[in-house]
Amino acid sequence: MADPENTNEPYVFRPAEFRPAVFIPAEVPHRPDASPAGEGPRTIQPPSATTVTSARRGWSPGMARVGEELVAWFKTLVSAAVYATLIVTFGFQVARVEGQSMVPTLEDQDRLIVNKLAYQLGDPQVGDIVMLYYPEDPSKSFVKRVIGREDDVLRSVGGKVYRNDVLLDDDFIPQEYRSLDTWGPEPVKRGYYFVMGDHRSNSSDSRTWGQVPKKYIIGRVQVRWWPVNHARVF
Description:
Elements: H1 49-57, H2 61-90, E1 92-96, E2 111-115, H3 118-121, E3 129-134, E4 137-148, E5 153-157, E6 160-163, E7 166-167, E8 183-187, E9 192-196, H4 206-209, E10 212-213, E11 217-226, E12 232-233
Antiparallel strand pairs: 1-2, 2-11, 3-4, 3-11, 4-9, 5-6, 5-8, 6-7, 9-10, 11-12
């Protein structure tokens, strides 16, 4: 019977396990200018000429934008000034009433818009409120109401005005603003107009300085825009 403790086993040589080394390349960081797989090299664009110029002049991009906006605003203002000049010259004019001669229709310091095109396309009509040059001093301008046109015959009896023997409707004039004068008959000359203020007892008009040639009539009073609470269209 064999004794297990005294059994001599032969020495067996076992070489160490060999594992081949595997090379794992390091991950390359992503660059913004890197080209995607399958594409050619990407060209890096140099700074634009505007950026280079601004940088050379010491202007930041923000300042450059502000400058461009200021130029745009300047162009807009110049255009608006040109349009306003054309409108005032050929179309409409803003005017201010000075005095009491058109009370109660217009008050002192009222602001008006005068339509200068109206009488380039047509003629003044009886009842129109007009802006005109003062015949005795064209550097001054007045606001009056047209009472008579060319070839009309006008007369007044105790403050009542007749046009071609027909009494003019003046119910809009309160008693305290009426006059009691008597004059006429007065024919209106060709190319002329007879004008009066609505404040008949306190107005310098055609009764004093005569008839007005059409060329002296600037335009028709179209709107009173100030005071706002009394704004109206005539």
